[in-house]
Specification:
The complex is a heterodimer of chains A (99) and B (527). Chain A has helices at 2-8, 10-38, 43-67, 71-94. Chain A is an all-alpha fold and 99 residues long. Chain A is elongated, with a radius of gyration of 16 Å. In chain B, 60% of the residues lie in helices and 8% in strands. The chains are: A mainly alpha (99), B alpha+beta (527).
C-alpha cells in the first residue's frame, strides 16, 4: 500500500485531495444550482431535490477524482465542469428562469 | 489513480478510513449509546421518577405558572407537556429579548416536577447524563459547538460515506464475501469479519451516513438555494423561512386565553394526543400568538396552527409547499434519530449501531494485521506503532472510558462544582490512560489486559449502583423500574462480552497483533 502511494507520488495525492475539497465543492454547488433550475415540478421542490442530492453529487465527484488515471484529466474536467454548469446556470438565470 | 478502478477505490477506502478511524469509532460508540439516551439519563439521575403520571391539564398549569413567574417578560415560551420516552419530564424553554440595544437574548430552559413545578435539576444530582454522551456523537467535546458540528463531524461523515461507497466498489465479490468467513487465519479473518459486518449492516450504514449529511445540507450547500434564485437572498430566506412568523410586541399587557381549549380544538381535528407542546410568542401581550404543532414522527416540519393568544381565534396555518424530496429528507432524518422506534426496534437500532462500531474497529485492526508481517518485533515504523497503539487504546479503551463516565456519576462527590462536566473529564482522562497503557505494557498484551479491565468496569456497575443508591437491580425489578434494571443488566452483559473476548485472546485463537500468526503465507488479494 505504502509502495503504491510512493509510486504515485505525494504531490500527486495532495493535488487530488485538494481537488476533492474546494474545486469539487464548487462543482457540487454549480451542478446543484443547474439541477435546481432545470428540474421540473416547481421552484421549491426542485431546490429541495437538488439540495438533498447535493452530497451524493459531491461524493460521486470525489470518487471520480480518485479513480481517474491522469491528474491532468482531473483538473481540466473540474475546470470545464464548473465553467459549463456555472455558465449554463448563469444563462438560465439571465433568461429569467428561477425568478 | 492506481491501476484499475477497483484498486483506486481500495486505496481511497484504506487511507480515508484509516486517517479518521478513531473519531468514526467514537461517533459510532456515542451515537449507538444515544439510542438509549433517555434510559441512560434515568440511570444517571436515580433521584427522578422514570415517568410522571400527573394529568395533562395539571402539567400545563404547572408549566405556565413557572413561566409566568420566572419569564413573564419573555418574547417566546415553549412548553412541552406530553410525557413519553423521549421527553419523560415536563420541560419549559423561554427567550427573553435583549434588555439593551445590541445586547444578547437570554435563553432559559428547565425541566420541572409536574406537580410542584420545582426544577428537576435541583432534585437530581448534577450530571451530564445520557444527553451529554449522545451529544458527543455530533458535537464531540471540548470544542466549539459550531466548529465541531458543522465542520469536523460533517466532514468526517462525508468521508465515512465516501469510505462506504469506495468500500463497496473495492469488493470483487460482495455476495460471495458475505458467505465467507475463515476463522483463525489472522489477517484474512479480520478482513472477512470487516466484510461480514459491513455487508450485514450496509443498509443501516448507508442510511445513517447519508442522513447524517442531510443534517448539515443547509449549512454546507445554501448556495444551491440562493444561487438558483439568482442570488436573491431575501427571496431565499422567504422561501425557506416562510415556515415561521414574526410577532412584534404591542407593549400592552393583556390577560391570555386558555390554551387547553385551543389544544382540545386542534386535537379534535388531528386526533387525540397529537399535540405534545405549544409555543407562545409575546406572552402576556395584546399581540400574543399561540402556536400548536401536530406531532408527527416522520416529519421535521409539522403542520402548525397559529392562534390569537388573547381571543383564542384561529389566525393562520404554517406549512411548506409539498415536496417529495423534502419528505425523503424528513424520513431519512427521522430514521437517523429513531425517535419513533419502540423498545424492540430501539434494540435493533442499538445492535445495528454496534455492528457499525465493530465494522470500524475490525477495519482498523485489519490495517495493522495486514502490515504486521513487514516488521520484525521492535522494528516497527512510527506510523505503524501509532496506529497499533491508538487501535487498542480506542477500540477497548473508549468502552472503558464510557464505563468510567458511569462510575464517575456514582462516585464523584455531590457538592463538586460542575460535577456533570467532571464526569466527562473522567471519561476522557481514562481514555487517555488507555492509550498510554499499550505504550507501557506492549500492544500484544494490552488487548487482553484492557479487555479484562473493561469486563470488570462493566460487570461492577450494577454492584456500584446497588451500593451507592437504593436503585439496585433487585429493588428496581421489585419497583417495576425496568429502565433502571435494564441498564444494569446491559452493563453486566457488556462485561461478560469483554470477559469472553479476553478469554478467547488468552487462548490465542483470535490473534490481534501476534506476529507469529501473520508469518504464514497469505493468499489474500493485494489491497
Amino acid at each position: 500500500m505504502a509502495s503504491a502511494t510512493d509510486k504515485v507520488g505525494r504531490w500527486h495525492v495532495a493535488s487530488r485531495v485538494f481537488a476533492a475539497t474546494i474545486p469539487a465543492f464548487v462543482l457540487t454547488n454549480t451542478t446543484g444550482v443547474l439541477l435546481a433550475l432545470i428540474w421540473p415540478g416547481g421552484q421549491f421542490p426542485s431546490i429541495v431535490t437538488s439540495m438533498v442530492s447535493a452530497f451524493a453529487i459531491y461524493t460521486a465527484i470525489i470518487l471520480w477524482i480518485f479513480a481517474v488515471k491522469r491528474l491532468r484529466t482531473v483538473w481540466w474536467t473540474m475546470l470545464g465542469g464548473i465553467l459549463f454548469t456555472g455558465g449554463a446556470s448563469a444563462l438560465l438565470l439571465f433568461m429569467g428562469v428561477g425568478q | 489513480m492506481i491501476g484499475s478502478f477497483r484498486q483506486s477505490m481500495t486505496w481511497l477506502h484504506t487511507w480515508a478510513g484509516l486517517l479518521f478511524v478513531w473519531i468514526m469509532y467514537f461517533m459510532f460508540v456515542t451515537g449507538t449509546l444515544g439510542y438509549f439516551d433517555t434510559e441512560i439519563d434515568h440511570w444517571m439521575e436515580p433521584e427522578l421518577a422514570a415517568l410522571e403520571t400527573t394529568p395533562r391539564d395539571e402539567r400545563i398549569a404547572t408549566g405556565l405558572a413557572y413561566l409566568q413567574e420566572n419569564a413573564g417578560n419573555a418574547e417566546r415560551w415553549f412548553l412541552s407537556f406530553a410525557l413519553d420516552r423521549e421527553q419523560p419530564h415536563l420541560r419549559v424553554n423561554w427567550t427573553i429579548p435583549a434588555q439593551e440595544e445590541g445586547g444578547d437574548r437570554e435563553f432559559g430552559s428547565e425541566r420541572l416536577h409536574s406537580v410542584t413545578g420545582e426544577p428537576l435539576d435541583e432534585i437530581a444530582r448534577d450530571t451530564g447524563g445520557g444527553q451529554l454522551l449522545y451529544r458527543m456523537h455530533y458535537l464531540l467535546h471540548y470544542l466549539d459547538r459550531d466548529i465541531a458540528y458543522r465542520f469536523i463531524v460533517a466532514a468526517i461523515t462525508l468521508i465515512m460515506f465516501i469510505g462506504m461507497i469506495s468500500g463497496i466498489i473495492a469488493h470483487k465479490k460482495i455476495f460471495k464475501d458475505f458467505f465467507t468467513f475463515r476463522p483463525k487465519k489472522g489477517q484474512r479473518s479480520w478482513l472477512d469479519m470487516h466484510n461480514l459486518l459491513s455487508v450485514t449492516s450496509l443498509p443501516f450504514l448507508i442510511m445513517i451516513s447519508y442522513s447524517g449529511l442531510l443534517f448539515v445540507t443547509t449549512m454546507w450547500m445554501p448556495l444551491i438555494a440562493v444561487g438558483s434564485l439568482g442570488f436573491d437572498t431575501e427571496k431565499a430566506s422567504d422561501l425557506i423561512g416562510g415556515f415561521d412568523i414574526k410577532v412584534e410586541s404591542a407593549g400592552e399587557p393583556t390577560q391570555m386565553t386558555d390554551v387547553i381549549a385551543l389544544i382540545e380544538a386542534a386535537e379534535a381535528d388531528w386526533g387525540e394526543g397529537s399535540v405534545h407542546g405549544f409555543q407562545v410568542r409575546q406572552p402576556n401581550d395584546a399581540n400574543a400568538r399561540i402556536l400548536l404543532s401536530k406531532e408527527e414522527s416522520f416529519s421535521r416540519i409539522p403542520d402548525t396552527r397559529v392562534y390569537d393568544g388573547v381571543t383564542g381565534e384561529y389566525v393562520q396555518s404554517l406549512e411548506l409547499p409539498p415536496s417529495n424530496a423534502l419528505n425523503v429528507a424528513s424520513v431519512m432524518i427521522a430514521l437517523h434519530e429513531g425517535l419513533f422506534a419502540g423498545i424492540s426496534l430501539r434494540w435493533l437500532y442499538f445492535l445495528t449501531g454496534l455492528l457499525g462500531t465493530a465494522m470500524v474497529g475490525t477495519g482498523a485492526i485489519y490495517w495493522v494485521s495486514k502490515r504486521r508481517k513487514k516488521y520484525t518485533a521492535g522494528n516497527e515504523s512510527f506510523g505503524f506503532r501509532f496506529v497499533e497503539v491508538l487501535n487498542v487504546g480506542t477500540i477497548i479503551g473508549l468502552p472503558i472510558a464510557v464505563a468510567a463516565f458511569f462510575w464517575a456519576n456514582r462516585l464523584l462527590p455531590f457538592g463538586l462544582e460542575n460535577r456533570g462536566e467532571w464526569e466527562a473529564h473522567v471519561m476522557f482522562a481514562v481514555w487517555g490512560l488507555c492509550i498510554l497503557y499499550p505504550m507501557v505494557r506492549t500492544v500484544a498484551v494490552s488487548w487482553r489486559e484492557l479487555s479484562w479491565i473493561a469486563a470488570f468496569a462493566y460487570m461492577a456497575l450494577p454492584v456500584l449502583n446497588a451500593i451507592t443508591t437504593d436503585h439496585g437491580i433487585f429493588s428496581s425489578v421489585n419497583r417495576g423500574d425496568w429502565v433502571m434494571a435494564g441498564f444494569d443488566l446491559t452493563a453486566l452483559a457488556t462485561g461478560v462480552v469483554f470477559a469472553v473476548a479476553a478469554l478467547v485472546m488468552r487462548r490465542g485463537r483470535l490473534a490481534v497483533t501476534k506476529p507469529a500468526v501473520m508469518s504464514t503465507a497469505e493468499t489474500a488479494p493485494s489491497t
